[in-house]
Structures are given as C-alpha cells and as structure tokens.
Amino acid sequence: MTAHRLPLVLAHAAAGLLGAGCLAHTLWHGLEEPGAALAFGVLVGVGELGRWSGSGEREPAPLGAAGALAYALLGETAGRPTHHGVPQVVAVVLAASLAGCVPHVARGRGPTTDHLTRRLLTVGFAAVCFQPLYHHGGPHHRSGPAYALIVVALLALTTLCDAVLAAALAHCRTRWPFGPLLRDELRGRRGIGSAVCATGAVMSLAVAVAGLWALPVFSLPLLLTQLSYRRYAAVRTTYRQTIASLARATEIAGYTLPGHARRVAELSRAVGREMGLTEPELTVLEYAALMHDIGQLSLVDPVPAGATARLPAEEQRRIALLGGAVVRQTGVDAEVAVVVERQADPYREQPVSARIVRAVNAYEEMAREETGPGGPLSALERLRLACARDYQPEVVESLARVLQRDGLRAPVVG
Questions:
Q1: Which of 81, 235, 327, 378 satisfies CB 3.0 to 4.6 Å to 337 for a cystine?
Q2: What is the pLDDT of residues 227-265, one digit of tens each?
Q3: Distance between CA 337 and CA 288 in Å, rounded?
Q4: E-assigned strands of 30-95?
C-alpha cells in the first residue's frame, strides 16, 4: 500500500468501526422511539435509492443527507424529548444507506464506499456534537438566540467536516492537490449543500413541534430541488456532448488525427487541476481544449497531421483567431472563444487556460513525432528549452508532474 492511500484506508476503517460498533450497540440495547427511527430510516433509504450517479455533483443524495442530518439534530418529537443517542443515529443511517445503495451496487453505478464513508463520519460528527449537548442542558438551553447560534455553528462545522473529508478522499484517489480540491468542495456547498443543511435543520425543528408528519411536508422542497438538479445535469451533459461533437469536425474532415482533441482536453484538465484552477475554470479549459483546432476548418490546404505547433507564429495566430470566430458563432461561452483565439499569443500575454492548451497541444504533437520509449521525455525536454519564448515554465512543470504521475506515456492515436 502506497503512502498516499493511507488516509483513504484509515477513513474507510474509521467509518467501518464506527458503523459496526454503533450497530452492535443498538442491536444489544434495542431501538429507542422505533417509530421515529423507522420514519427517518425510510427517508434516508429513499434518498439514497434516488441518488444520481456519474453527474459529478458533490452531494449525489441530498434528500438522504438532509434526513440523516435531521435525525442527528433531533431532540424532541411532538414536544416529547427523545432518547435515541449517538449510536442509534449512526446505526439507523448505516442500515438505511446500505438498503438504499443495494440497487446502485447491483448495477455498478457510483462510488458507494467513499459515499458511505462520508455519510457515516459526517453524521457521526453531527450527532456527537449535538446529542450530548442537547440532552445534558436544561430547558432554557433549548430555545432562544443562543440555541439557534449553536445549531448554525454546528451546521457550519458539519459542512466543513464533510468538505475536508470529501477533498481528502478525492486527493487520495486521484493525487490531485488537496488545496484546490478543498476550495472547490467549499464553493460547491453554497449550492445544494446549503439546501441540505437548511432542510435538515428545519426538519428536526418541525418534527420537534409537529411530530413525524412534518417529514414528508418538509422533504418536498428538497425533492423538487433534486429533480431540478437532475435536469440541469442532463442539460450540462448534452452541452458537453455537443461541444465534443463540434470538436470532432476537424477529425472527420481530415485536418487532425483521430482522438487528438480529446487527448489534449483530458491532459489540459489534469494540468489545470494540478495548477489549482477552480471547477468553472477547468470547464472552460476543457471546452477550449476540445475546440482548439477548429480554426483549421478555414484552411484551404490542411496542415500535415494537424500539427500547428511547428507553423510560423503569424500563421498560428491566424488559425487561432479563425477558431475563436467559429466558436463565437456556435453559441459557446465567450470565455472559451477567448482561450481559443489567444492560444497562439506570447504566453506572457495569455490567460492561464490558453497557456495550458498551447503547452499541452505542443507536447501531444511532439510526443507523437518522437519514436521509441524516450519520446515523452524528449518532448518534455523540447518544451523546457522553449520556455523562455513560447511556454510558461510553471505550466510545463505541472505537465511534467501529471505525466510522471500517470506513467509518462506517449499519446496513442485512435
């Protein structure tokens, strides 16, 4: 086992021990308030059953997350104090999550292990912070501004805990820099994450006053939000597929080699993540890399193998400007057009995304030209020698780290 995967193993082990211990404790001592446990368990299970897979969202099961958080923050049911405690919260969430994940596991959809690890550790953290504080305080501690501030602070800490855990797990699996991953996770919490926290808190307060009948009522808004996110994710997927199809026009017309745009886009996105670009910036970078050669469609005579890196600077700039004009006519985001049309400018005048696309495109072309096992290293060395004029040194070094991490393999045409 490599050192970078040790935190991943420790997180899974901690979640497993927590879940097993809490489940054994609950089975030994029995369920407190079984009606409430069943109601919240069904809510979490339904939320997990309806989670989406492969959309890239940071919270794939918002309804399940809100239900689990609400149960962790539950202090009363219809005015009667509860006594379920931390072990029962974790046990109920574990059992419901496992039941809801069975269809996803059977179909091979989604990273279930990391998802369950985050769910158990985050809910356990919230329950450990809230349950003892609530039940050991007097009635005057359970109302008023001070209590509201405590709940808000607990929600903020729980959100931070989940973001750190998600970034750590992603870092261990991908070896991408932890800082940018954590920043993206925290930014992502401003969307569906804030809705999950707010719904979880409101659910627990509503059940405390009105009883379990409040659960379906206050689940409806988040359910509608989840459906809206599904439609948004579908639109975004279609949008990306459209851009990828436009990018293949140069391959179909014979101007570039098959798979060139896809390889440049994948490698550019990896370099951008290595350099700490945000998720929106990475999306613009990916789209620009997919369409970086589309200006060649305006050429009367195709460039041999589509290799524009060896052309004179003025010719490269002319093709880039033509490509930017084409991108603007397709209705794609104007930021993408800017990156495409400025990829041939002197690197000191380029935006970061254009610097990345230019360096990665040149590497892909050079590595394809080189023969033998030393081709990728030779291509990198040629990029380093041209850093003073054509390529930003930081981009080239980030590219070198990505290639070293991924095995430093030459591009494969096809």
A1: 327
A2: 777 787 778 888 888 888 888 888 887 778 888 889 999
A3: 7
A4: 76-77, 80-81
